[in-house]
Design a protein that fits this description.
Oligomer: single chain
Number of domains: 1
Distance between the termini: 22 Å
Radius of gyration: 16 Å
Structural class: alpha+beta
Order of helices and strands: EEEHHEEEEHEEHHHE
């Protein structure tokens, strides 16, 4: 059985009627590792929150051996089974032999975190990023228009990346679209409460969305971490 990392999470509703963010984490007894998932519902509606909770739970329950893309596809099947119109974006991190496999749709992010530096490893699936990639002007609204989601993405549209060593930070856009890179790095310097401080600072700086973070401590870090209930 692989040694499980220390991790902690936090979430705040912000100036919304509903907190449509959700997290999941699950390690099967005697299994090969742990799966982390963070979902962000599309819109401020109960259906969005339900979709995010469903996606995060289904993704986290995917066997580690199947990998991160399989976890996103499991989330998609679960959300489609809900019927209705609820949708979300999602980022998944699956523990591997030498780090983590990452998969995502939409603008939820993963960062590599080694205790000294933080590096974004996902690339937002947004209209703004699409226009940047094609050297076209970007408007502020484009930052909030996603081009993939759990409900709509085809398998070949799921983004993938790897983190070969160290820890992780997973965030909803209420965190990373409010906090600058240097601010995030400063907060991660106090990792025993980094997830809580990422969320609190994003809201206090005027963030207009729900804010959620999962921080997975780098291996060997001498840290006291907060326990959190795994996905149901």
């Amino acid at each position: 059985m692989r040694e499980l990392p220390h991790w902690h999470t936090a979430s705040a509703q912000g100036p919304r009627e509903h907190n449509a963010d959700a997290v999941g984490a699950y390690a099967a007894a005697g299994g090969a590792g742990i799966v982390f998932a963070l979902a962000d519902g599309v819109g401020d509606h109960p259906n969005a929150a339900r979709a995010a909770r469903t996606a995060a739970s289904a993704a986290a329950r995917t066997p580690v051996e199947q990998g991160a893309v399989a976890a996103v596809l499991a989330a998609q099947r679960a959300v489609l089974q809900l019927g209705g119109a609820g949708d979300c974006v999602l980022v998944v991190a699956v523990q591997t032999g030498d780090g983590y496999g990452i998969a995502w749709v939409g603008d939820a992010r993963a960062y590599a975190w080694d205790g000294y530096t933080v590096r974004q490893v996902t690339k937002d699936h947004t209209l703004a990023q699409y226009f940047r990639d094609h050297d076209q002007p970007v408007t502020p609204r484009m930052e909030h228009v996603v081009t993939t989601s759990v409900r709509t993405a085809n398998a070949h549209e799921i983004g993938t990346a790897t983190v070969t060593a160290g820890g992780l930070v997973l965030t909803s856009d209420g965190v990373h679209k409010t906090l600058s890179g240097p601010t995030m790095l400063d907060i991660l310097g106090m990792p025993d409460r980094a997830a809580t401080e990422l969320v609190r600072t994003a809201i206090s700086l005027g963030g207009s969305d729900n804010a959620t973070a999962i921080v997975v401590d780098p291996p060997g870090a001498d840290l006291a971490t907060e326990k959190f209930r795994v996905a149901a």
